[in-house]
């Protein structure tokens, strides 16, 4: 069976709560069947609103949402058959784990032994077999989370929405749950729309990520491309760490451009600049700049160490470079580590292809 | 082993347990002193009066104290089908003479008359004989008294005296349930046309029940709205709910009188819109309707507030979860939201019911004859007939009723599940 690449479709969707400000602007987004897509963005960027519109708790002000080719804007939430995991889990506190999971099946008038089977299967999927008679309050945060996931999946929905489901967990648990959810997704092949403001969560879990800002999708691509090739300075800034230089294009050809900074010039990869004289922000990932490079690189400079912070697996070095004292380097922790001392001068180099000249900030 | 048996010492060498107790003691005393005023207040204003009420309601020592010798002699009266022996007559005569000297014989006559009709007449006869010194103490008193009136020769009257011997009586409680102790000592019901108290008890329960029901059906949506509306509207609505709460009870009841009377605002409005004819205005006051309307309005906040405080804690995402999982809005409400509000419903209903069952001013003002409650009857005996012991007995019966309801409620719902805030 071929997968429908437009299983969920946002078609020119606008949303406004007060008739003055658009929370979501002209959203065009196709989600393929079986895909794990993450809506990532700062709070207030419109990502949760999109999710709520898909779930049916908010109606689009303009435009249509299609599920498997059918317009669903006028279908009430309970008829959409979309599973949802809520931020605070929203387990029914007066029902046992079993009753929580049986709820979506009971309202669908599924037979008793069929319910038992499905609940069993869903619980073993989240490795919570044997917890049927517990009340939600008797479970830890991570366990409640799993019950919420199991409940959203137990009735075999076509789409599952997850609204920052890991937000309330501590760091270690959050990471292990990320893998668990990813594995569940891989094993049952359900379409997942995931909302988060945590970029590392988005990068580890998703097939594709839609970065939201200001009611618009800034970039929609797979995690690697998103990180390696941000298309604008917001995405570059929001995903991972990022060194920036603001300047003006003085020379440009096909895959290189020369950017004039306050008192020097660097070579960069022209992404969103087209012509001479344009203002630009050059973005460079910290790990792409090397100390004392052995190979020849087309950007070579000398900087002075301002601060050295030990992070265990890597060391962060803050440099004064090209007139800015905010240049960050990440030095992996290896045996061949050089001595890094404050106010020492070091040579730094990077390739122009990694320095992306984006829209000015 | 050793760590268990060895006493743990503080650095000063005092056993840890002793040291802990010493440290805690100050806190305990402090805590006790903080609640002491309340405790004292409760004892003086609540526990002591209830005890006093109870004593009053069962106290029947008047006759016991007036006829000490009679009752002493009656211990020897064995065959209760025959007239008592000479000693009883003599004892009664001597007791009565003392009462005559103290001028308390009238009270005895009235009290005995309550026990057995016709007693007043024959004690008055006895009084006259004593006043005229007609009784010769050297010969049989029995024969002389028996000659005064034929009723003295009726064993029923002596049995009536005997019945008043115990210093305590349940008669007031029986009266509260329209029952009495018959002359043969068994408990009997009063005639059907005189059973006023039972009607009042039933009516009190009925009105309290329906007022609770009305408050629930009106209060639930209000509380839900309060809990879900945005802050600026919910504050306004909250003030609307609380405003009557802050108004004097009398003012509110009086305003209901203005609204509901036959020439009142509501009736005027009905006539104006042609719902009823001007000569055919319905009576909405001085009957049950008035009591229902006014009491429901007055007790509504007691339903709304506990419901609101419970609903406020229910996350709106639960309803959403219910819907997203496939429940219709009604199913989501009934299976998810409603069960979570039960603690609030319990608290609100219990509060309203218990308040309604003892309500007094409102039914007294708007209830008329068919809308008054048991508390109005209690007030009537407190103020008008001055039968405080009967009023006390009914008050205690009401209190017991409330405790029983609380107990049943605890069995059904569990008091732990009540949430007042």
Write up what this structure looks like:
Chain A has 361 residues and is an alpha+beta fold. In chain A, 23% of the residues lie in helices and 35% in strands. Chain A has helices at residues 47-55, 97-106, 112-125, 141-153, 171-188, 199-205, 223-228, 233-238, and strands at residues 8-16, 22-31, 36-40, 62-67, 70-71, 82-85, 159-163, 191-196, 208-213, 216-221, 243-252, 257-260, 265-270, 279-284, 290-291, 299-310, 314-321, 324-332, 345-350, 356-358. In chain A, the strands form four sheets. A six-stranded mixed β-sheet of chain A has the order 6-7-8-3-9-10, with helices on both faces. In chain A, strands 11-12-13-20-14 form a five-stranded mixed beta barrel. Chain B is mainly α and 421 residues long. Chain B has three domains: 2-58, no CATH class; 61-167, no CATH class; 196-417, MetI-like fold (Orthogonal Bundle). In chain B, 70% of the residues lie in helices and 1% in strands. In chain B, strands 1-2 form a two-stranded antiparallel ribbon. In chain B, a hairpin with a 5-residue loop joins strand 1 and strand 2. In chain B, 29% of the residues are buried. The A-B interface holds A 55-57, 76-84, 86-88, 90-94, 103-104, 107-108, 151-152, 155, 161 and B 315, 317-318, 320-329, 331-332, 335-336, 339-340.
Approximate shape of chain B: flat
- Return the string of H and E elements of chain A: EEEHEEEHHHEHEHEEHHEEEEEEEEEE
Question: Which range does the strand content of chain A fall in?
Answer: 25-35%
Q: Would you report the number of β strands of chain A?
A: 20
Low-confidence stretches of chain B: none
Beta content of chain B comes to under 5%
Rg calc of chain B:
32 Å
- The shape of chain A, in one word, is globular
Number of domains of chain B: 3
Share of helical residues of chain A = 10-25%
Based on CA atoms alone, the radius of gyration of chain A comes out at 24 Å
What distance separates the N and C termini of chain B?
49 Å
Largest sheet of chain A: 6 strands, mixed
CATH topology of the largest domain in chain A: Rossmann fold
């Amino acid at each position: 069976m071929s997968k429908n690449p437009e299983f969920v479709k946002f078609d020119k969707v606008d949303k406004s709560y007060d008739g003055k400000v658009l929370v979501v602007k002209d959203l065009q987004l196709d989600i393929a069947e079986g895909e794990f897509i993450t809506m990532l963005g700062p709070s207030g960027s419109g990502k949760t609103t999109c999710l709520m519109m898909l779930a049916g708790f908010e109606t689009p002000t303009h435009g249509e949402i299609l599920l498997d080719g059918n317009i669903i804007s006028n279908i009430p939430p309970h008829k959409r058959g979309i599973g949802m995991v809520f931020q605070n889990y929203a387990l029914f506190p007066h029902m046992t784990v079993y009753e929580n999971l049986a709820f979506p099946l009971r309202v669908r008038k599924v037979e008793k032994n069929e319910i038992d089977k499905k609940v069993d299967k869903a619980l073993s999927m989240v490795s919570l077999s044997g917890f049927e008679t517990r009340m939600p309050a008797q479970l830890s945060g991570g366990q409640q989370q799993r019950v919420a996931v199991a409940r959203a999946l137990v009735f075999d929905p076509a789409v599952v929405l997850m609204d920052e489901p890991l937000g309330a967990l501590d760091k270690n648990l959050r990471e292990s749950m990320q893998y668990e959810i990813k594995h569940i997704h891989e094993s049952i092949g359900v379409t997942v729309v995931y909302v988060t403001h945590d970029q590392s969560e988005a990068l580890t879990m998703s097939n594709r990520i839609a970065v939201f800002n200001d009611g618009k999708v800034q970039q929609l691509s797979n995690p690697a491309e998103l990180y390696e090739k941000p298309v604008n300075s917001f995405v570059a800034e929001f995903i991972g760490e990022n060194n920036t230089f603001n300047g003006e294009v003085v020379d440009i050809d096909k895959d290189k451009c020369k950017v004039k900074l306050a008192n020097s010039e660097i070579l960069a990869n022209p992404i969103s600049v087209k012509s001479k004289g344009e203002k630009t922000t050059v973005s460079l990932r910290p790990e792409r700049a090397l100390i004392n490079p052995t190979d020849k690189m087309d950007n070579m400079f000398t900087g002075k160490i301002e601060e050295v912070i030990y992070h265990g697996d890597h060391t962060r070095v803050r440099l004064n470079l090209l007139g800015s004292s905010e240049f960050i380097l990440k030095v992996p922790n290896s045996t061949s580590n050089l001595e890094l001392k404050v106010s020492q001068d070091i040579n730094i180099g990077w390739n122009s292809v990694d320095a992306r000249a984006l829209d000015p900030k | 082993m050793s760590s268990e048996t060895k006493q743990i010492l503080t650095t000063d060498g005092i056993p840890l347990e002793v040291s802990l107790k010493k440290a805690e003691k100050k806190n305990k005393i402090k805590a006790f002193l903080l609640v002491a005023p309340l405790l004292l207040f409760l004892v003086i204003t609540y526990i002591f009066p209830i005890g006093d009420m109870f004593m009053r309601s069962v106290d029947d020592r008047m006759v016991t104290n007036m006829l000490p010798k009679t009752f002493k002699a009656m211990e020897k009266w064995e065959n209760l089908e025959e007239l008592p022996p000479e000693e009883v007559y003599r004892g009664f005569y001597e007791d009565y003479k003392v009462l005559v000297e103290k001028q308390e014989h009238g009270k005895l006559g009235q009290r005995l008359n309550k026990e057995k009709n016709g007693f007043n007449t024959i004690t008055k006869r006895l009084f006259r004989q004593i006043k005229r010194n007609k009784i010769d103490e050297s010969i049989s008193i029995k024969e002389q008294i028996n000659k005064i009136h034929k009723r003295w020769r009726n064993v029923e009257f002596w049995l009536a005296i005997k019945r008043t011997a115990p210093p305590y009586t349940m008669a007031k409680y029986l009266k509260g349930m329209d029952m009495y102790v018959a002359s043969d000592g068994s408990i009997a019901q009063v005639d059907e046309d005189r059973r006023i108290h039972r009607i009042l008890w039933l009516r009190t329960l009925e009105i309290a029940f329906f007022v609770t029901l009305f408050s629930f059906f009106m209060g639930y949506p209000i509380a839900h709205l309060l809990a879900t509306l945005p802050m600026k509207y919910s504050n306004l609505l909250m003030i609307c709910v609380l405003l009557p709460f802050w108004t004097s009870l009398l003012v509110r009841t009086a305003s209901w009188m203005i609204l509901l009377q036959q020439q009142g605002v509501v009736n005027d409005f009905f006539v104006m819109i042609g719902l009823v004819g001007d000569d055919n205005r319905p009576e909405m006051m001085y009957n049950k309707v008035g009591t229902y309307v006014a009491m429901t309005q007055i007790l509504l906040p007691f339903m709304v507030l506990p419901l609101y405080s419970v609903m406020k804690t229910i996350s709106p995402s639960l309803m959403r979860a219910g819907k997203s999982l496939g429940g219709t809005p009604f199913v989501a409400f009934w299976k998810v939201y409603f069960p979570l509000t039960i603690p609030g419903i319990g608290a609100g209903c219990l509060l309203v019911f218990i308040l309604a069952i003892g309500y007094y001013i409102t039914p007294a003002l708007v209830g008329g004859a068919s809308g008054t409650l048991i508390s109005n009857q209690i007030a009537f005996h407190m103020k008008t007939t001055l039968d405080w012991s009967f009023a006390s007995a009914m008050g205690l019966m009401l209190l017991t009723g409330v405790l029983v309801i609380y107990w049943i409620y605890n069995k059904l719902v569990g008091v732990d599940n009540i949430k007042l805030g």
